[in-house]
Amino acid sequence: MMKGLPEGFLWGGATAANQCEGGYMEGGKGPGTVDMIPWGENRLAVMQGHMDYRELPEDSYFPAREAIDMYHRWKEDIALMAEMGFKCCRFSFAWSRIFPTGEEEAPNEEGLKFYENIIDEMLRLHIEPVVTICHFDVPLHLEQKYGSWRSRRLIDAYLRYCRAIFERFKGKVRYWMTFNEINMLMHLPFMGAGISFKKGENELEVKYQAAHNELVASALATRLAHEIDPESKVGCMLAAGQFYPYSCDPEDVWEAMKKDRVNYFFIDVQSKGEYPAYAKKQMEREQITIQMEPEDEAILRENTVDYIAFSYYSSRMISAHPHPEIETSGNAFKTLRNPWLKASQWGWQIDPLGLRITMNSLYDRYQKPLFIVENGLGAVDTIQKDGTISDDYRIEYLSAHIREMIKAVEEDGVDLIGYTPWGWIDLVSASTGEMKKRYGFVYVDKDNAGNGTLERRKKKSFDWYQQVIATNGECL
Ligand code: BGP
Fold first, then answer.
1. What are the pLDDT digits (tens) for 192-226?
2. What is the DSSP string of 229-257?
């Protein structure tokens, strides 16, 4: 039996442009949808597409615009990841850095150069770049002119962007992901895909239309990447986390299965190349009609993804019957409180075995290599008097998850490419916009209101993770 993880396993960490770069209008960058998501009480309504960002109060604060200023500090930050021994780094490009409005004929050279410098520095330090093409980020102009992904026009704009980056980074970037947490479109449509709603419209229909456009774009991008660089690997990316039934009442089990499908839907199309029967039936039942072109079926069928990337923070629980006393909505996904699990300060339930369960479900369903591109614990960290940060809770969370991940590989035979815990350096939280919710091995001096020196400081988990990578997980 194979022991441990394979040689060349991609240990690393993950970030996203809008949560760490800042430099929001620098280097020719245009505004993106995500730059319009405010901190505070209006955040959720904007992310859900139920409040127009144009109506926000004058003094709103937009954390994505400054973030942790990686735009100017990338070299120092890459040195830190190299010191931890990263084999890879997952990060995203801001689309509007490269195509400021999304409609230019040619890309913005300064934007491309910015990412080229980063990629070259990573390669120099033997860190494999893993790039998310679109992480919650659409050029604002495309949202204003076309209503973002509800329009098919976005497919052309996205492909122009893909062509520019595939050609430029040919031979340098091997792993691409088309859309971060593509299923987030169903839960937080403005954050996930720049979609907001007009009064009285059929929201589910709009979401399915946007989903279809993204799915076709993803398939065409996969084809294009393979044409330009046959060595490249293109993945889908799912916000994963198994739904458990509240009880063994078959009604609860059925409910859990249906909930899982809301998320699997996207990956079923991206990985198997066709709309699953249950989705077609649902659209029929709910009288949803979406615009599809005759060639779409073949495009989806012929251009499936090479690997399945996913984020996993927690499992979820659901019942067919109401249980308001234990309902929580710690994140975008409503869940019941599972009595067997503890939760983070933000109510995200901690379930390491759930990672193994989720990996097995995904592998059984798709039989393609998996890549865990997000996992981690958001927590409040305090700096001790002597300047150290003892984040034992984070070490405990990650150790337990990595142990289950290794079992899934070693004992269940799951094919796994790598593991990039989320927010290897503290950054802005996607759901809350806070800095206080920290994930990093590296602390960044900045608070919720945007104050701080931005100084980087290693936490206890920094040395711990360095050791995990050096021993390929065997020290755990
Ligand atoms: C995922 C996103 C990330 C991220 C992470 C943690 O949904 O892909 O962008 O931030 O969750 O969530 P949060 O920042 O809300 O704690």
1. 999 999 999 999 999 999 999 999 999 999 999 99
2. -TT-EEEEEEE--PEEESSS-HHHHHHHH
Please tell me the predicted confidence (pLDDT) of residue 333: 77
- Residue 431 CA, closest ligand 1 atom number: 15
In the reported structure, the alpha carbon of residue 311 is separated from the centroid of ligand 1 by a whole-number distance in angstroms of 9
For residues 173 and 166, give the distance between their C-alpha atoms in angstroms, rounded to a whole number: 8
Per the CB < 8 A criterion, the answer to whether 442 and 80 are in contact is: yes
Active site includes 374?
yes
- Domain boundary assignment for the chain: 10-470
Q: What are the backbone angles phi and psi of residue 131, rounded to the nearest 5°?
A: -110, 125
Which H/E stretch holds residue 466?
helix 460-470
pTM of the full predicted structure? 0.98
CA of 16, closest atom in ligand 1: 9
Res 330: pLDDT:
57
pLDDT < 70: residue spans in the chain: 1-2, 329-331
Q: How far is the CA of 341 from the centre of ligand 1 (A)?
A: 21
Q: Which fold has domain 10-470?
A: TIM Barrel (3.20.20)
- What span, in angstroms and rounded, lies between the C-alpha atoms of 341 and 326? 13
* Residue of 434, 375, 381 lying closest to 64 (CA atoms): 434
Residue 92 DSSP SS3? strand
**Contacts with 204 (C-beta within 8 Å, 6 or more apart), sequence order:** 286, 288
Q: Which DSSP category does 347 fall into?
A: S
- The C-alpha angle with vertex 470 and arms to 69 and 6, in degrees rounded to 5, equals 105
Q: Are strands 307-311 and 370-374 parallel, antiparallel or unpaired?
A: parallel
| Residues with Cβ within 8 Å of residue 88, at least 6 apart in sequence | 10, 11, 12, 127, 128, 129, 130, 175, 418, 420
List the residue whose alpha carbon is closest to atom 4 of ligand 1. 430
Q: 225-256 burial, b if ≥16 CB within 10 A, otherwise e?
A: bbebbeebbbbbbbbbbbbbbbeeeeebbebb
In whole angstroms, give the CA distance from residue 173 to residue 122: 11
CA distance 211 to 204: 10
If you compute the radius of gyration of the chain from its CA atoms, what whole number of angstroms results?
21
Phi, psi for 110 (deg, rounded to 5): -65, -35
